[in-house]
Specification:
Blueprint: H1 10-24, H2 29-53, H3 56-63, H4 66-86, H5 88-91, H6 97-107, H7 114-122, H8 127-153, H9 159-182, H10 184-193, H11 195-219, H12 222-225, H13 228-255, H14 260-270, H15 275-285, H16 288-319
Helix pairs in contact: 1-11, 2-9, 2-10, 2-11, 3-8, 4-8, 4-13, 4-14, 6-16, 7-8, 7-14, 7-16, 8-9, 8-14, 9-15, 11-15, 11-16, 13-14, 13-16, 15-16
Length: about 325
């Protein structure tokens, strides 16, 4: 039976189901502690596998394109936070203070990896540069995001808090990533033959974090604090942020003289925010009862960016038919 066109993808449906489950049956007491420990383990495994998957050839292939990477990083870690702060008087009245904290947190997150590369490939952009830029953004985010959280999201927090957050993220996320990358010579072949396992760990760890986060938030009265009008306002806020980011990344790329393939890479790497990195970071950076409201904007923005960028990638692919395409996607070992 053909899937109805109006249905979102399976993972989005699973996210919604997880939120509903946490609302109806939130984890409490011993169960909450079990899920919290298991979630920490799953996130560490996820970053270990991602570290093992990333090849050094892929890093070397794109690292020399420093102007492109610098623009992507500026859009990710400067443009987005500036937009979040500058648009606050206009957009904050549309949502609750807790949801706007989540919007600001979204603005300081690194870019996605898998979807940015997939859309760049679909649109016939500079794939090696996308691999390098998106991967480097994730690694930079380990250091930059906690600092920006202290400066932009929670400006009253002390500098020590940001330093402690960096240490916690290094231990929980970066250490497994580095361990996975160092073990790549021995396990990369096994991982490439079993890509499905990485997908299951990827999605499973996110679902676990969403369940534990929303369980804690529901117990603290999340849905009593988030009215329906605020959810509608959140949709508007995410739409405005994504629209401005897509427009400005393309405009900057053209004004600075990048060719079409590089422009495509800049748009898809510079306008996207990572759910896979954002949710684990939120778990480390925020108190348990605040994580649910903090990641809600990110979950909505993530789905929105996937749908809009899928359409945009197809338009780019049609527009570059007469231009030389970048090299096709390939597996770098």
């Amino acid at each position: 039976m053909k899937r109805p066109a109006f249905l979102p993808d399976d993972f989005t449906l699973m996210l919604v189901a997880t939120v509903v489950l946490a609302t109806l049956l939130p984890a409490q007491g011993v169960a909450a502690r079990f899920f919290d420990g298991f979630t920490t383990f799953a996130i560490g495994l996820l970053f270990f596998l991602h570290g093992a998957k990333l090849s050094r050839d892929a890093i070397r292939a794109g690292i020399t394109h420093w102007r492109l990477h610098l623009l992507v990083f500026a859009c990710t870690f400067v443009l987005f936070p500036v937009l979040g702060v500058a648009l606050k008087p206009l957009l904050q009245p549309l949502v609750t203070p807790a949801l706007y904290t989540g919007i600001l947190f979204l603005c300081v997150l690194p870019a996605t990896v898998q979807s940015a590369i997939a859309f760049t490939s679909m649109a016939r952009g500079n794939i090696p540069a996308a691999v390098c830029s998106a991967s480097a953004s994730t690694m930079l985010g380990v250091f930059v995001t906690p600092v920006l959280v202290g400066l932009v999201v929670l400006p009253s927090a002390a500098a020590t808090s940001s330093f402690d957050s960096i240490v916690r993220i290094l231990l929980q996320l970066m250490l497994p990533f580095v361990a996975g990358h160092l073990s790549r010579p021995w396990i990369s072949g096994w991982i490439h033959r079993r890509k499905r396992i990485l997908g299951l760990v990827d999605r499973g760890s996110i679902l676990l974090v969403v369940y534990t986060a929303f369980s804690a938030a529901v117990i603290e009265g999340l849905w009593k604090q988030v009215p329906v009008l605020a959810l509608a306002g959140l949709l508007v806020v995410c739409s405005v942020l994504l629209g401005i980011a897509l427009f400005l990344t393309g405009w900057f790329a053209r004004r600075l003289g990048f060719d079409k393939a590089d422009e495509i890479t800049i748009v898809f790497c510079g306008s996207k925010k990572s759910l896979a990195s954002g949710i684990p970071m939120a778990k480390v950076l925020f108190p348990a009862h605040l994580v649910g409201a903090t990641v809600l904007p990110l979950m909505l923005f993530h789905q929105m960016q996937l749908m809009v960028c899928a359409v945009l990638a197809q338009r780019y692919a049609r527009r570059v038919d007469d231009a030389p395409a970048s090299e096709p996607a390939r597996q770098v070992s």
